[in-house]
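Would you mind writing out the residues of a protein together with its fold in token form for me to study?
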Amino acid sequence: MTDLEEKRLSSRQAFKGRLLDIWVDDVELPDGSTSTREFTKHPGAVVMIPVLPNGKILLIRQYRYPMGEVEIELPAGKIDPGEKPEETVQRELIEETGYRAGKISYVVEIHPCVGYSDERMWIYLTQELEEEVQNTDVDEFIELAPTEFEECLRLVQTGEIKDVKTIIGLFWAEKLMSGIWNPPD
């Protein structure tokens, strides 16, 4: 055990949902005392930075019930059981946007909610997009919002984009598009 590591003493599932599960663990702290940790288990997700042939970024607009507002986001989706993140990218991109990527490049893995979730998100740059048919889930309503890249950054700066995965993805896209960084092959 490192100086900061906490040791699980017991664990119980408090809630099982369609998307996530909630767990309550008793842990031993580094100083030997004990505490309780509540957290969600999440299957993981992918985030796409879709670059249209005209150079615009394909953002989406979607009502997010927990926030009570329409959010401007990069498309993203949950990884299904047995699916690899790179497989999820193509499936979710088609479902949410109606585009298929001819080129998919891994960018980075992020942990968006480390204080209360084990969720991992893998961000991918998607290029050489070809239009197909949007195939959203029956309870999912998405509006496509092709946006000039500079406008995407302005929306972050003005607080119109608040979604953390989108902000991180767009900042990585800025590095990619300026040639400061190239994704690994």
